[in-house]
C-alpha cells in the first residue's frame, strides 16, 4: 500500500469523512471562488456567512477553489486535507453532510 493511500485512509478514519465529502468540498470551494461558474459578464457578490461559512473559512475555500477551478472534484483526499486551515478542517467535519446544499443554492446556469 502506498504512503498516500495510507494517509488518505487515516484521514478518513479519524474524521469520518468519505471521498464524496471531499468531492462536495471541492465543488463548494469552486463555487466560493466563482459563484457564476465562469460565465463571463456576470458578477455575483455573496455573503458566505449567510450560508454558514465564516470569513476565514471562505477565504481558505476561495483559495482552494481557485487552485482547482476547472478540475474534477475527485482529487486525492490527502491533497485537499493538506490545503485546509485548522479552522476550515473543523468547519468541514461539522458541515460535511450539508455541503451539497451549497451547490443546490447555485444551480447550473444551463438548467431550466
Give the topology:
Elements lengths: L2 H13 L3 H15 L21 H13 L9 H6 L3 H10 L3 H7 L7
What does this protein look like?
- It is a single chain.
- With 112 residues, this protein is mostly helical.
- Helices cover 57% and strands 0% of the residues.
- It has 6 helices and no strands.
- The longest helix is centred in the N-terminal third of the chain and has 15 residues.
- The mean pLDDT is 86.
Report the strand count.
0
Structural class: mainly alpha
Query: Largest beta sheet, briefly?
Result: none
Give the helix proportion (percent range). Answer: 55-70%
* Mean pLDDT across all amino acids: 86
- In what range is the share of β-strand residues? under 5%
Unreliable segments of 5+ consecutive residues: none
Number of helices: 6
* Principal-axes shape call: globular
Report the order of strands and helices: HHHHHH
Our measurement of the CA-to-CA distance between the termini, rounded to an integer number of angstroms, reads: 46 Å
Amino acid at each position: 500500500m502506498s504512503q498516500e493511500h495510507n494517509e488518505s485512509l487515516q484521514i478518513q478514519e479519524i474524521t469520518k469523512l468519505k471521498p464524496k465529502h471531499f468531492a462536495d468540498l471541492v465543488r463548494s470551494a469552486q463555487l466560493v471562488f466563482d459563484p457564476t461558474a465562469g460565465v463571463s459578464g456576470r458578477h455575483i457578490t455573496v455573503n458566505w456567512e449567510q450560508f454558514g461559512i465564516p470569513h476565514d473559512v471562505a477565504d481558505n475555500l476561495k483559495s482552494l477553489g481557485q487552485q482547482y477551478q476547472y478540475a474534477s472534484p475527485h482529487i486525492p483526499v490527502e491533497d485537499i486535507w493538506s490545503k485546509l486551515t485548522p479552522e476550515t478542517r473543523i468547519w468541514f467535519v461539522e458541515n460535511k453532510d450539508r455541503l451539497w446544499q451549497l451547490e443546490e443554492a447555485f444551480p447550473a446556469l444551463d438548467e431550466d
